[in-house]
Each structure stands twice: as C-alpha cells, then as structure tokens.
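Budget justification note: compute hours in this period were largely spent on complex prediction jobs such as the one shown. Inputs:
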Amino acid sequence: MSTNKSYKTREEILVKGREAIGIPFKQIDQTNRLTTGKGAIGSVMEESWFGYNINNEANPDFSSAGVELKVTPYKSTRNGLRAKERLVCNIINYMEEYKTTFQTSSFWKKCNTMLLMFYEHKENLSKGDFTIDEVVLFSFPKEDFLIIEKDWEIIVGKIKNGKAHELSERDTLYLGACTKGATAASVRQQPFSDISAKQRAFSLKESYMTYLLNKYILGNEADERIIKNPSLLKEQSFEEIIVSKISQHFGKTQQQLLAEFELKTSAKNVNELLLARMLGIKGRLSSTEEFQKANIILKTIRVNSDDSITESMSFPAFNFQKIVTENWEDCDFKNMLEQMKFLFVIFRYNNINELIFDNILFWNIPEPDLDEIRTVWERTVAILKQGVQLKTIGKRTYNNFPKSSENRVAHVRPHARNSQDTLTLPDGRQMPKQCFWLNNTYIREQLQKNFSPK
DNA sequence: GCATGATCATGC
DNA sequence: GCATGATCATGC
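Corresponding output:
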C-alpha cells in the first residue's frame, strides 16, 4: 500500500493542510469514516482530504517530504484551552527499539516533523460539525529535542534492563510510553525478560500538547524557562540540573532562606516561592515552560524530627455526581495521576523545631500503587452508589468513605472551605466536598524508598 | 497520639 | 467566588 505521492514538499503539505481550516468534517468525509470509532477524524483527513490510503508504515505519512500527519483535538476549559489527549505516535517494538540510537529510532524517523492539525472537541456537537482551526508544520525546538532524547533513553533503558513491564508514562517528561491496545491485556514480548509487557506507544504528553496549542493557536508568549541554556541538557538530565542548582541550599533553615531571598510573606506557598528564587525564576515555578510541558506538580512535605510525616497529600475535590458515572480505566482521577510528575520539596524539623530545607525529589506513582488507589476509588464509587452513611456527632459529621487505616496508599477526606462548602450527592443530599488523599505514611514510605542507600 | 473532619490563605 | 495547596484541631 502506498503512502501519499501527490504532496512532495513541506510547503505543499502545509498549504493543503491549511485549506481545511473551517470546513466541517462531515463535508470533508467521502468514505463514511466518521461513523467509525476512535481515530475516525484522522482517517477522514488522510483519505478524503489528502487522498491517500490509511497505512501503518514505519515511514512518515508523507515519506518524500518526511512529514507525519497528526490531527489532534483540544477542548475549552475554565483554565483556557487544553489538549484533549496525548498525541500517540508509534507503537514501541520492544524487540527492536533498543537496537537503535535516538536519531535512528522509530519515533524520530516517523515523527521528527509533523503537520499538526488542531480541532476543537465540543461536548454538545457531533464529530461531523467539528472543524480544523489551526495547522502548523512542527519540528521540535532544541530545548525540547534534548529533553525528548533523554526521555527516549529512559524508556529504552528500561527495555534494556528487562523492565519493559514496569514502564509508565510518568517515567519521563515530554515523551511518554503510554499504553496502547484494545484492552489492558494487550501485551508483547520484551527482549531481556520473560515477563510479557503491556503494549505501549511513544506519545507526546497531554501537558506538552497543551503547551503547543497555546503557543500556536492562541499565540501566547513563551513563559519563563528554567534552563536558559539548552546545551546544558546534553550533559545532564533536567532533574539533575535542577538538583545541582538547588543543592547548595540544603541544610539552611526556612528563616535563613527567606532572609537570603528577601521574601516577606505569610503565603502557604512560601516554599514554592523559595524554590523559584533558588532557580532564578521571577514568577511562579508552576508557570515555567518546563513545569507546564511536563505537568510537574510541586508539593511541599514537612518531615518531623522522628521521620514521621503529619500531613497527607490532597488532590482536587471530586464531583460526586460525575464520579459515579465513570469507570476507573478512563476516570478523571486516574487520568490525572497518570499525567502528573511530582516535585517533592522536603523540609525537616530539627530537634529545636526549626524547619530545615532537606532535599527535593522528582517522583511519580509506581504502577502497583496505582492499583491500590484503584481499590480506594472503586470503593468510594460503590459507597456513593449505595448512599453515603452520614452521622453527625456534635460539630462533626462522620462518613463511611475509605479511611487511611484501610489502605496503604490512599484515603478519602473532606477538602472544602468549610462544612457549608458542599456538593450534591447522587441521592440529592449535600455533603462537604471530598477528595482523594495520599496517606502520610505512604509518603514517608516513598521518601525512605528513594533516599535510603541503595 | 493519631485519624479524620474542618478550615485557612492565596491566586486567578 | 471558587479552586487549590496547605495546615489546623477535635475527639476517639
């Protein structure tokens, strides 16, 4: 089956692509592809707009120009425009990928230059009414290229270590290894272990796509970048660079740091402000280009002098009525956890109760622990469906959601402004907003696992 | 003392 | 005004 022969240059491809802007897909579709399931819109553009047969070749769609066609959705949210999903590139052949270098890898061969066609997914419209809104010919800028190369090496490193079955999309920053297959049971062989591994594909993370979208569609100005000189990334990983910039401050008290950076604030996010100063960032750390592209979430952890941790870690409140309509496999919470990379900023109380800046840790949830969270999530949904049991004693109202004592990893607890800050339960009653929390004991366990001598 | 319910402070 | 990250505080 041939790839497209009619478009030989990048310019021709871009011009033809841009001509599609504003035309509803139902007018473009000549082969009734829109009625099919996932990927229907991409198929329409390939067949009916560019006029070539759908293929799954290793070469880019426009092979002579070296351009891969990608049609990708975004959505409008109260936080602005966001990519609706990760951009899935090519399936990883564990048996072959480790034999190449990044430059000769399957991912780079296929996707180093892409024609990105963005369309808005609107909740109340059908696919046929959607239109392409923006088209760009995209090549990776140097600062991203170097991070993506490292990401690829991390993924291939796991294959080489016989750990393809332990791959997770959260291992990396921009280029992820996302699961790909009809069911979670879609597995493949790996070269250095007998354990079969989930089928995965190289993909650009949702957060990375959101950044591209805002840059290209909205024309938003670039945000502050932490690593001003991308060449540094040739020597060290992003995480290593951050640690090397910050480690000189380990051991200082919070008071010393506040004085050193001339910060006067009672804000609960002082530690984020301090970290930003250490990195030479003027604005918020979470607004930097790298943090946005990789969806790095900063969390402060205070460790007591006896190594215990008092507080559990909260997440956004969930909507009772929405969560009961979801399945774990495609629910909001799992999706969020799968996409998050955490930066733990660790402070430790010394024996005279001073708060000492102790360390930082880039962390993500290990796959087996995500399964633990699944049980908590499913119990929560089951309880909501049965009707939560509420018992008021004095000023406090007790419930029967999963407690921290019931699961090693997570529990459910209120997360509201006060007890009047409620949402409607599926049965119509009101209840203070709740969220999933990572247990304080679990956080402690994770810190010990990552910092104990190997 | 700890688990769990309750609430604060900020930024957008 | 609300979401969010962070922290307080009651009562078992």
